[in-house]
Amino acid sequence: SNTTLTLDDVFREYMQSKQGSIATITENEYNRAYKMYLGELGHRKMISITPRDMLAVRQSIVNTAYSKSYKNKIIKLVKSVSKFRYNFYDFKDCSKQLTLLPLNSNDMKTYTIWSPEEFDHFISFIDDYVCKAFFTFLFHTGTRLGEAKALLVSDISSGSASISKSMKHFEGGVQPLKTTSSKRVIQLDRQTMKVLAPLLNSSSMYLFGDQEPVSLSKLQRCFKKALDASGNPKITIHDLRHSHASYLIGNGANIVAVSKRLGHTDVNMTLKVYTHILKESE
């Protein structure tokens, strides 16, 4: 009955309700955050948890050394769980009054990005053809690393790439995409098609690899070696995606088109991530 329900019970159901709509990596992150900040209340019966308890939880989150945006992410999770118990069990929403931390311009995440010239300089230090093609593809399409890894040769046709699945590590296998909007068809430029040509004419199943995709460790090794040799500003593989988007926005591309190309849920998400670039281009 509702009187014996504990916070652990409700969280378990909350996570079940999220299955299929969030990525495994997010699921793990939620479980970790719950254990860390709500774990102590877990065994408590729902009817005994008060708004003051939730305020104490918020305070413990605020006291951590994480960035403001990450703290807000955890506060939002606490609020979502509390709202879930209100919606489905009619318990009072104890976290309703919890506020998020206000962000100022210093809290906005800015990304180090490369210009096409910097990318061309970097790529000249890579000998391995699959790695060279992989990074060129990321820089010219803005796809996520896992999306590019999961591409089959058959996903490329008439100058476009069909993005319909993702893969972080081969052990994890092919995963569905983060959101339905992530499923998309991306047009490829002539230069990218030229780089892909030898891979398209092979008998491989995966575009970047063979019967199995290129391993993450090989990509990271290749990237680091060329990055160190190039002397370019330090960036991550994921920043190639930001570089692509920044290049498009900086050159006046339509923000709706950029958002669709990146597979964002909506334009607001794109605006949130790339506000600083829009300010610069202004």
Task: Give keywords.
single chain, 282 residues, 12 helices, 3 strands
Mean pLDDT: 88
Largest sheet: 3 strands, antiparallel
Radius of gyration: 22 Å
What characteristic shape results from the CA principal axes? elongated
The H-and-E topology, N to C, reads as: HHHHHHHEEEHHHHH
Low-confidence stretches: none
Q: Record the strand order, biggest sheet.
A: 1-2-3
Main structural class: mainly alpha
Helical segment tally?
12
- Termini separation: 58 Å
How much β-strand is present in the residues?
under 5%
Kindly state the number of beta strands. Answer: 3
Oligomer, anyone?
single chain
Helix content: 40-55%
Describe the structure.
The protein has 282 residues and is mainly alpha-helical. Helix content is 52%, strand content 4%. It has helices at residues 7-18, 24-37, 51-62, 68-89, 116-123, 129-141, 145-149, 190-200, 216-230, 239-250, 255-262, 267-281, and strands at 156-157, 160-163, 184-187. A hairpin with a 2-residue loop joins strand 1 and strand 2. The radius of gyration is 22 Å and the shape is elongated. 30% of the residues are buried.
Write the topology of this structure.
Blueprint: H1 7-18, H2 24-37, H3 51-62, H4 68-89, H5 116-123, H6 129-141, H7 145-149, E1 156-157, E2 160-163, E3 184-187, H8 190-200, H9 216-230, H10 239-250, H11 255-262, H12 267-281
Antiparallel strand pairs: 1-2, 2-3
Helix pairs in contact: 3-4, 6-8, 6-10, 10-12, 11-12
Short description:
The chain is mostly helical.
